[in-house]
Protein backbone atom coordinates (compact mmCIF):
# COMPACT_ATOMS: atom_id res chain seq x y z
CA UNK A 1 0.00 0.00 0.00
CA UNK A 2 1.69 3.18 -1.18
CA UNK A 3 -0.77 5.60 0.42
CA UNK A 4 1.04 8.39 2.27
CA UNK A 5 -1.93 10.51 3.37
CA UNK A 6 -2.67 8.71 6.63
CA UNK A 7 -3.63 11.24 9.31
CA UNK A 8 -1.13 11.83 12.10
CA UNK A 9 -2.17 10.40 15.45
CA UNK A 10 -2.22 12.68 18.49
CA UNK A 11 1.10 12.83 20.39
CA UNK A 12 2.86 11.19 17.45
CA UNK A 13 5.52 12.59 15.12
CA UNK A 14 6.27 11.82 11.49
CA UNK A 15 9.75 12.44 10.14
CA UNK A 16 9.45 14.71 7.07
CA UNK A 17 9.95 12.83 3.81
CA UNK A 18 12.65 15.31 2.89
CA UNK A 19 14.88 13.91 5.62
CA UNK A 20 15.23 10.74 3.55
CA UNK A 21 16.09 12.35 0.23
CA UNK A 22 18.98 10.87 -1.72
CA UNK A 23 19.88 8.11 0.72
CA UNK A 24 22.92 6.12 -0.35
CA UNK A 25 22.07 2.67 -1.79
CA UNK A 26 18.41 2.92 -0.75
CA UNK A 27 16.32 3.15 -3.96
CA UNK A 28 13.30 1.30 -2.56
CA UNK A 29 9.72 2.49 -2.96
CA UNK A 30 7.92 3.41 0.25
CA UNK A 31 4.88 1.40 1.35
CA UNK A 32 2.69 2.25 4.34
CA UNK A 33 0.13 0.53 6.53
CA UNK A 34 -2.03 1.92 9.32
CA UNK A 35 -1.21 0.19 12.62
CA UNK A 36 -2.96 1.32 15.81
CA UNK A 37 -3.65 4.67 14.16
CA UNK A 38 -0.01 5.12 13.10
CA UNK A 39 1.69 4.92 9.73
CA UNK A 40 4.11 1.99 9.56
CA UNK A 41 6.59 2.01 6.68
CA UNK A 42 7.89 -1.07 4.91
CA UNK A 43 9.87 -2.10 1.86
CA UNK A 44 8.20 -4.67 -0.41
CA UNK A 45 10.63 -5.75 -3.14
CA UNK A 46 10.37 -8.61 -5.62
CA UNK A 47 6.60 -8.82 -5.45
CA UNK A 48 6.48 -11.14 -8.47
CA UNK A 49 8.14 -13.92 -6.46
CA UNK A 50 6.00 -16.51 -4.67
CA UNK A 51 8.16 -17.08 -1.57
CA UNK A 52 8.52 -14.26 0.99
CA UNK A 53 11.24 -13.40 3.49
CA UNK A 54 10.75 -10.79 6.21
CA UNK A 55 13.76 -8.80 7.45
CA UNK A 56 13.28 -7.40 10.95
CA UNK A 57 15.62 -4.74 12.37
CA UNK A 58 16.20 -3.61 15.96
CA UNK A 59 17.28 -0.54 17.95
CA UNK A 60 18.37 2.10 16.91
CA UNK A 61 18.49 1.03 13.24
CA UNK A 62 15.81 0.81 10.55
CA UNK A 63 15.25 -0.96 7.21
CA UNK A 64 18.25 0.92 5.78
CA UNK A 65 20.29 -1.74 7.58
CA UNK A 66 19.14 -4.29 4.98
CA UNK A 67 19.80 -2.20 1.85
CA UNK A 68 22.58 -4.50 0.60
CA UNK A 69 20.83 -7.79 1.44
CA UNK A 70 17.52 -6.95 -0.21
CA UNK A 71 18.70 -6.93 -3.87
CA UNK A 72 20.63 -10.17 -3.40
CA UNK A 73 17.62 -11.92 -1.89
CA UNK A 74 15.33 -10.64 -4.65
CA UNK A 75 17.84 -11.89 -7.23
CA UNK A 76 17.76 -15.27 -5.47
CA UNK A 77 14.02 -15.46 -6.14
CA UNK A 78 12.36 -14.09 -3.01
CA UNK A 79 9.87 -11.37 -2.23
CA UNK A 80 11.47 -9.29 0.53
CA UNK A 81 9.48 -7.33 3.13
CA UNK A 82 11.42 -5.09 5.52
CA UNK A 83 9.30 -3.01 7.93
CA UNK A 84 10.41 -0.14 10.12
CA UNK A 85 9.42 -0.57 13.76
CA UNK A 86 7.04 2.05 15.10
CA UNK A 87 9.27 4.83 16.46
CA UNK A 88 12.04 4.14 13.93
CA UNK A 89 12.90 4.80 10.29
CA UNK A 90 10.08 6.16 8.17
CA UNK A 91 7.39 4.87 10.54
CA UNK A 92 5.49 7.22 12.86
CA UNK A 93 7.02 7.97 16.25
CA UNK A 94 5.00 8.19 19.47
CA UNK A 95 6.44 11.01 21.57
CA UNK A 96 5.84 9.45 24.98
CA UNK A 97 8.28 6.86 26.25
CA UNK A 98 5.36 5.25 28.10
CA UNK A 99 3.90 4.22 24.74
CA UNK A 100 7.02 2.22 23.87
CA UNK A 101 6.34 -0.90 25.90
CA UNK A 102 7.57 -4.32 24.85
CA UNK A 103 3.98 -5.48 24.53
CA UNK A 104 3.00 -2.57 22.31
CA UNK A 105 5.85 -3.25 19.88
CA UNK A 106 4.77 -6.89 19.70
CA UNK A 107 1.15 -5.80 19.17
CA UNK A 108 2.11 -3.37 16.40
CA UNK A 109 4.25 -5.91 14.53
CA UNK A 110 1.60 -8.60 14.95
CA UNK A 111 -0.98 -6.22 13.45
CA UNK A 112 1.33 -5.59 10.50
CA UNK A 113 1.75 -9.33 9.91
CA UNK A 114 -1.98 -9.97 10.25
CA UNK A 115 -2.92 -7.19 7.85
CA UNK A 116 -0.45 -8.38 5.22
CA UNK A 117 -1.98 -11.83 5.54
CA UNK A 118 1.13 -13.64 4.30
CA UNK A 119 1.47 -17.17 5.71
CA UNK A 120 4.23 -19.79 5.47
CA UNK A 121 6.92 -17.17 4.88
CA UNK A 122 10.51 -17.02 6.15
CA UNK A 123 12.22 -14.36 8.27
CA UNK A 124 15.63 -13.02 9.25
CA UNK A 125 15.53 -11.40 12.70
CA UNK A 126 18.29 -9.43 14.44
CA UNK A 127 18.47 -7.52 17.75
CA UNK A 128 15.01 -6.28 18.80
CA UNK A 129 13.75 -7.62 15.50
CA UNK A 130 14.13 -11.03 17.11
CA UNK A 131 12.91 -10.08 20.57
CA UNK A 132 9.74 -8.68 19.00
CA UNK A 133 9.45 -11.02 16.02
CA UNK A 134 9.81 -14.20 18.06
CA UNK A 135 6.90 -13.20 20.28
CA UNK A 136 4.83 -12.43 17.18
CA UNK A 137 5.69 -15.89 15.84
CA UNK A 138 4.64 -17.46 19.15
CA UNK A 139 1.25 -15.82 18.74
CA UNK A 140 1.04 -16.34 14.95
CA UNK A 141 2.71 -19.75 14.37
CA UNK A 142 1.38 -20.02 10.81
CA UNK A 143 3.21 -16.85 9.79
CA UNK A 144 6.58 -18.53 9.15
CA UNK A 145 7.90 -21.85 7.88
CA UNK A 146 11.60 -20.89 8.14
CA UNK A 147 13.48 -18.71 10.63
CA UNK A 148 16.99 -17.25 10.68
CA UNK A 149 18.19 -15.66 13.93
CA UNK A 150 21.19 -13.35 14.19
CA UNK A 151 22.52 -11.51 17.26
CA UNK A 152 19.27 -11.58 19.18
CA UNK A 153 17.85 -13.11 22.33
CA UNK A 154 14.67 -14.35 23.94
CA UNK A 155 14.62 -16.83 26.76
CA UNK A 156 12.53 -18.00 29.65
CA UNK A 157 13.60 -16.96 33.14
CA UNK A 158 13.00 -18.77 36.40
CA UNK A 159 11.51 -16.98 39.40
CA UNK A 160 14.89 -15.89 40.79
CA UNK A 161 16.05 -14.59 37.41
CA UNK A 162 12.77 -12.74 36.93
CA UNK A 163 13.42 -11.01 40.24
CA UNK A 164 17.14 -10.35 39.84
CA UNK A 165 17.78 -9.58 36.16
CA UNK A 166 15.69 -6.37 35.95
CA UNK A 167 17.30 -5.11 39.16
CA UNK A 168 20.82 -5.87 37.92
CA UNK A 169 20.22 -4.13 34.60
CA UNK A 170 18.74 -1.09 36.35
CA UNK A 171 21.78 -0.97 38.65
CA UNK A 172 24.21 -1.19 35.72
CA UNK A 173 22.45 1.65 33.92
CA UNK A 174 22.43 3.83 37.03
CA UNK A 175 26.09 3.08 37.74
CA UNK A 176 27.04 4.20 34.22
CA UNK A 177 25.83 7.74 34.93
CA UNK A 178 25.60 9.84 31.77
CA UNK A 179 28.22 8.41 29.41
CA UNK A 180 29.34 10.22 26.30
CA UNK A 181 29.54 8.53 22.91
CA UNK A 182 33.29 8.27 23.40
CA UNK A 183 32.82 6.57 26.77
CA UNK A 184 30.44 4.05 25.22
CA UNK A 185 32.82 3.41 22.30
CA UNK A 186 35.67 2.64 24.69
CA UNK A 187 33.56 0.57 27.11
CA UNK A 188 30.76 -1.16 25.20
CA UNK A 189 28.39 -2.72 27.71
CA UNK A 190 24.73 -2.70 28.63
CA UNK A 191 25.03 0.01 31.29
CA UNK A 192 26.69 2.52 28.97
CA UNK A 193 24.30 1.59 26.15
CA UNK A 194 21.15 2.14 28.18
CA UNK A 195 22.43 5.29 29.86
CA UNK A 196 23.69 6.87 26.65
CA UNK A 197 20.28 6.50 25.03
CA UNK A 198 18.45 7.66 28.14
CA UNK A 199 20.47 10.78 28.90
CA UNK A 200 22.22 12.05 25.77
CA UNK A 201 20.68 15.28 24.52
CA UNK A 202 21.74 14.48 20.96
CA UNK A 203 21.70 10.85 19.84
CA UNK A 204 24.42 10.30 17.25
CA UNK A 205 22.83 7.17 15.85
CA UNK A 206 25.08 6.89 12.81
CA UNK A 207 28.17 6.97 14.98
CA UNK A 208 26.61 4.45 17.37
CA UNK A 209 26.06 2.09 14.45
CA UNK A 210 29.69 2.65 13.47
CA UNK A 211 30.92 1.60 16.93
CA UNK A 212 29.12 -1.71 16.45
CA UNK A 213 30.44 -2.57 13.00
CA UNK A 214 33.82 -3.77 11.77
CA UNK A 215 33.43 -1.99 8.43
CA UNK A 216 34.06 1.74 8.05
CA UNK A 217 30.79 3.51 7.26
CA UNK A 218 30.82 6.56 5.02
CA UNK A 219 29.52 9.92 6.23
CA UNK A 220 26.51 9.45 3.95
CA UNK A 221 25.71 6.08 5.51
CA UNK A 222 25.96 7.44 9.04
CA UNK A 223 23.75 10.37 8.08
CA UNK A 224 21.17 7.89 6.77
CA UNK A 225 20.98 6.32 10.24
CA UNK A 226 20.54 9.79 11.75
CA UNK A 227 17.82 10.75 9.27
CA UNK A 228 14.77 9.36 11.14
CA UNK A 229 15.53 11.52 14.20
CA UNK A 230 15.80 15.20 13.19
CA UNK A 231 15.47 16.43 16.79
CA UNK A 232 15.23 15.26 20.38
CA UNK A 233 11.43 15.14 20.12
CA UNK A 234 11.75 12.01 17.97
CA UNK A 235 13.91 10.01 20.38
CA UNK A 236 11.30 8.22 22.52
CA UNK A 237 11.63 4.84 20.78
CA UNK A 238 15.43 4.46 20.82
CA UNK A 239 15.61 5.99 24.31
CA UNK A 240 13.16 3.53 25.82
CA UNK A 241 14.11 0.19 24.27
CA UNK A 242 17.28 -0.47 26.29
CA UNK A 243 15.22 0.00 29.45
CA UNK A 244 12.65 -2.68 28.56
CA UNK A 245 15.03 -5.51 27.65
CA UNK A 246 13.96 -7.45 30.75
CA UNK A 247 10.31 -6.47 30.99
CA UNK A 248 7.01 -8.36 30.76
CA UNK A 249 8.85 -11.51 31.78
CA UNK A 250 5.70 -13.51 32.51
CA UNK A 251 4.50 -12.87 28.96
CA UNK A 252 7.97 -13.60 27.54
CA UNK A 253 8.04 -16.92 29.40
CA UNK A 254 4.61 -17.80 28.06
CA UNK A 255 5.61 -16.97 24.49
CA UNK A 256 8.86 -18.93 24.87
CA UNK A 257 6.82 -21.99 25.81
CA UNK A 258 4.60 -21.49 22.76
CA UNK A 259 7.68 -21.13 20.56
CA UNK A 260 8.99 -24.49 21.71
CA UNK A 261 5.98 -26.06 20.01
CA UNK A 262 6.98 -24.46 16.68
CA UNK A 263 9.07 -27.15 14.99
CA UNK A 264 9.93 -25.66 11.61
CA UNK A 265 13.61 -25.28 10.54
CA UNK A 266 15.70 -22.67 12.39
CA UNK A 267 19.18 -21.39 11.47
CA UNK A 268 21.45 -19.25 13.68
CA UNK A 269 23.96 -16.84 12.14
CA UNK A 270 25.55 -15.02 15.08
CA UNK A 271 28.70 -12.93 14.62
CA UNK A 272 32.09 -13.40 16.22
CA UNK A 273 32.73 -9.79 17.32
CA UNK A 274 29.40 -8.74 18.80
CA UNK A 275 30.44 -7.07 22.10
CA UNK A 276 27.06 -7.82 23.64
CA UNK A 277 26.30 -11.39 22.55
CA UNK A 278 29.38 -13.13 21.10
CA UNK A 279 30.37 -16.12 23.21
CA UNK A 280 27.41 -15.71 25.58
CA UNK A 281 25.58 -18.82 24.37
CA UNK A 282 22.43 -17.15 23.08
CA UNK A 283 22.75 -18.94 19.74
CA UNK A 284 23.14 -22.24 21.62
CA UNK A 285 19.90 -21.61 23.51
CA UNK A 286 18.02 -21.49 20.25
CA UNK A 287 19.86 -24.51 18.88
CA UNK A 288 19.19 -26.57 22.01
CA UNK A 289 15.58 -25.57 22.69
CA UNK A 290 14.00 -25.96 19.27
CA UNK A 291 13.66 -29.22 17.42
CA UNK A 292 13.78 -27.42 14.08
CA UNK A 293 17.33 -26.25 14.85
CA UNK A 294 18.71 -29.78 15.05
CA UNK A 295 21.34 -30.66 12.45
CA UNK A 296 21.09 -27.30 10.72
CA UNK A 297 24.30 -25.65 9.38
CA UNK A 298 24.56 -23.04 12.13
CA UNK A 299 27.40 -20.66 11.36
CA UNK A 300 29.43 -18.02 13.17
CA UNK A 301 29.82 -15.02 10.87
CA UNK A 302 33.44 -13.91 11.09
CA UNK A 303 34.74 -10.34 11.21
CA UNK A 304 31.29 -8.98 12.04
CA UNK A 305 30.10 -6.97 15.01
CA UNK A 306 26.57 -6.49 16.37
CA UNK A 307 25.22 -5.00 13.13
CA UNK A 308 26.46 -7.85 11.00
CA UNK A 309 24.22 -6.77 8.11
CA UNK A 310 26.63 -3.87 7.60
CA UNK A 311 29.74 -6.02 7.90
CA UNK A 312 28.90 -9.17 5.94
CA UNK A 313 25.73 -8.45 3.96
CA UNK A 314 26.66 -10.51 0.91
CA UNK A 315 27.62 -13.56 2.99
CA UNK A 316 24.41 -13.28 5.01
CA UNK A 317 22.19 -13.02 1.94
CA UNK A 318 23.97 -15.97 0.31
CA UNK A 319 23.79 -18.09 3.48
CA UNK A 320 20.08 -17.36 3.93
CA UNK A 321 19.19 -18.04 0.29
CA UNK A 322 21.22 -21.25 0.14
CA UNK A 323 19.73 -22.53 3.36
CA UNK A 324 16.18 -21.80 2.26
CA UNK A 325 16.82 -23.77 -0.92
CA UNK A 326 18.46 -26.63 1.01
CA UNK A 327 15.41 -26.91 3.27
CA UNK A 328 13.06 -26.90 0.27
CA UNK A 329 11.43 -23.60 1.16
Automatic annotation (TrEMBL):
Pfam families attached to this UniProt entry: Abhydrolase_1 (PF00561)
Enzyme class label: hydrolase
Cytoplasm in keyword set: no
Keyword vocabulary terms for this entry: Acyltransferase, Hydrolase, Transferase
EC number(s) given by UniProt: 3.8.1.5
Keyword 4Fe-4S among record annotations: no
Ranges of residues in domain AB hydrolase-1: 52-311
One MF annotation (Gene Ontology) recorded for this entry: haloalkane dehalogenase activity
Recorded superkingdom: Bacteria
InterPro entries attached to this UniProt entry: AB_hydrolase_1, AB_hydrolase_fold, Epox_hydrolase-like, Haloalkane_dehalogenase
Protein name per UniProt: Putative hydrolase or acyltransferase of alpha/beta superfamily
Native source species: Shewanella psychrophila
Classification of source organism: Bacteria, Pseudomonadati, Pseudomonadota, Gammaproteobacteria, Alteromonadales
